[in-house]
Amino acid sequence: MLLQFLVYLAWLLIAASAFGCAYLWYASHAVVRFARRVIPSDPAQPAVSILKPLRGEDPALMDNLRSFCRQAYGRYQIVFGVADADDPAVPVIRRLEEEFPESDITLVVEPSHGGANLKIANLRNMLPAARHDVFVLADSDMRVGPDYLTAVVAPIEYGAGLVTCLYRGLSAGGFCSDIASLHINHGFLPQAVVADSLGLGAGCFGATMAFGRETLARTGGFDALADVLADDHELGQAVGRLGLEVVLSPYIVDDIVAEADFGALFRHELRWARTIRLVAPGGFIGSVVTFPVPLAALAVLLGAFAVPPLVMLLLALLCRALTAARIDRALRLNRAPVWILPVRDMLSFGVFIASFFGRGVAWRDHYFRIGPNGQLVLDAKKS
Question: Most buried among 198, 274, 283, 314, using CB within 10 Å?
Answer without folding.
Answer: 274
